[in-house]
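Predict fold of FlaA1/EpsC-like NDP-sugar epimerase; 653 aa.
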Amino acid sequence: MQVRRRASGDTTADATPGDWRGPGPHRVPWYRRALPGRAARAAVDAVAMGAALLIATLLRHDGHVAEVYFLGLVVLSAVAAVVHTGAGIHFGLYTGRWAYGCFEEIAALVRTAATTVPAVLVLDTVLGRLVPRSAIIAAGLFALVLTAGVRYLVRSLQDSRLRPSPEHGGRVVVMGAGEGATQVIRAMLRSPRSRYVPVALLDDDPAKRTFRVMGVPVCGTRDDMADVVRRFKADAVVIAIPSAGADLIRALTALAEPLNVDLKVVPPVVELFGRTVRVEDIRPVSHEDLLGRREVGIDLAAVAGYLEGRRVLVTGAGGSIGSELCRQLARFHPAKLVMLDRDESGLHAVQLSIDGRGQLDDRNLVVADIRDQQRLDEVFAEHKPHVVFHAAALKHLPLLEMHPSEALKTNIIGTYQILQTAMRHNVDRLVNISTDKAADPCSVLGYSKRITERLTAAADAAATGTYCSVRFGNVLGSRGSVLTAFAAQVEAGGPITVTHPDVTRYFMTVQEAVRLVIQAGACESKGEVLVLDMGEPVRIADVAKRIADAADQHIQIVYTGLRPAEKLAEVLLGPNETDHRPHHPLISQAPVPPLDGAVLSLLDPSSPREDLIAVLHWLADSPALPKSPHPVFAGKQRRTEPAAAAVPFGRHP
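Predicted 3D structure, encoded as C-alpha cells:
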C-alpha cells in the first residue's frame, strides 16, 4: 500500500484526487536548450568565414601584410559572416535538421558556400571593392574546408569518447563489409558499454581489400579467418550479412568451429523488416540460421494493396503459423485484425506479442471452433472480413494416422465450413494454408489437406472473390517441429531419435514462410495451389548430429525406422503439377481439380478407421465422383451434423 505524504508548505491539497505526480522541476523549453548549441555552430562558421577571407587575401598579396586593406577586410568579413549565417539557416545548417557532421550537413555546407560567394562578390562591388575578387572566390573554398574540418574534428572527438575499450569488450572479427557490417560497427563503436569491439573485417569482394569502416580494416577473405583471428586475438566472429542464406551461414560456421571463438550473427532481412541493425540484435547462430535462412523479397505495394485498410481474419491465430501471420499482418495496418482460435492461451500470447498488453478485452480476439458452423456465422456477421487466412488445422501425421476422424472433422469439414461461410459473407480473398504432405499424398494428413485444396479450388470457381491454397514444408520454430523435439530430447539427456539415416525434409523459418504466404495472397490465381520454394532438402540425420555435437554431454542418436505413411523424402509438387512461377520467383502456381462439397456427405467419422482412410484417399485422388454414396457407407445412416449439412458450392441453404 502506498501513502501519499505532503511536505510542509505543500499547496497541492486541492489537487485532483488520485493525481500522484508532484509538480516536479520546471522543464526548460526545448528552444532554450537547443539555441545555445546552434548559435555556437553559427558563430564558429562565421569565424571560419572571416579567417578564410583573411587567408585568401594574404595569399593574393603573396603574404605582404602592408598591402592588405584591413579595415575593408574587417567590414567585408562581417558582411560575409552575416551572409553565410543567413544562407546556413536557409539550408538547414542551424535548424537541427541533421546530425552534426553527417554527410547531409556537409552537402548543406557546400550549398551555403556556393550561395555566400556570389552574394559577397556583389556586396563587395557595392561597397567599393574592399578586397580582391579572386580572394573572395578562394575564401569560399577555404571556408568550406575549415567548417567541414571543424565538424570532422568534433565528430571524431565524440566518437573517440564513445568508442569502447578492448579491455572491457570482446574483440570481434566481423564477416562482411557491406551495409549490414557498417551498421553493426557503427553501433558497436558508439557505445562505451558495448560488449563488442570490432578489430578487423573479412570480405570476399576483391574490391574491398583496402576498405575501412570507421577505422576498422578489411584484412582478408573468409579463407583468412583463422589467421586474422589469431593475429588480432579475437574472441568472437560476427556474421554481419543480413541477407546471408543458410548455405553461407553453414560454410562460415564450419570455418569458425576449429578456432575456439564465439560465433554470432545479425538477424536476417525478414526479421529486421527495414530497420537498421543494432548491437542488441547480435545473437548466437541458431539452428534456424543453419537450416532455413535466406532472403525473401516481397512486393510491399502489392501486399499493402489488399491488406492496408481492410478487415482481415486469421483462423488458428494462436498457433505458430497463425500467430506469426498476425504479427506480420499488423505491420500492414489493416483496418481490423480479427484473431480466431479455440485456444484462449494462444490468443493471449499473440496479443501480448503484438501490443504488449494482453488484456483480452478486445472484440477482435475471438474464441471459436471452426467445427461450429453457427459460431462461424456469428463471427463473420460481426466482423465482416474482407480477407481471410485459414491456418487452423491438425498437423501431426502419426496422430492423424491413428485418429483419421479428427482429420475429417477439423481439416476437411472445418475448412469446408470456413469456405462456405466466407462465400455467404462475400469475402474478397481467402488463403488456405496447406502442406507439402498434400503433394502426392500417402497419409491421412496429406489426404485431408489435398481435399481442402480441392474444396478451395471449387470455392474459387463459385465465388466472386479469389480463393487459393498455399503449400509449404516444415517450418522451423513451429510447435512440434523437429528442432523442438530434438532440443527436448537433448534436455532430457538423450537419445535423439531419427526415423531413418537418409530421411530428408524441406525447411523454412516461420518468418520466411509467413512472409511468402502474405505475398502469395496478392498473387492472381484461379483456385490454384501456390507452392512456396523451400530451397534444398536437408538430411535430418545431419541436423541431429549437429545438435548432438553442440550439447554439453554425449548424446546418442538412435534410428527408429519410418513411421506408418511417412515418406523418406517429401515433394512440393505432385506428379501432374508443373513448376510454373508467373508472379513471384519463389512461388509456383499449380492447377487443382475442384471437388464438389456435396461429396462430404459420403464421409462418416464413426466408420472403421481403415474404411475412412480408404475413402479419404479416394477423395484426394479421384478426378470426378459419382453422386451416389460410396459402397463403404452403404446402409449407414448416421453422419456428423456438419457432414449432413454439406451442400455443393454455390447452393447455400
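The chain has three domains: 36-161, 170-291, 300-474+507-535+572-621.
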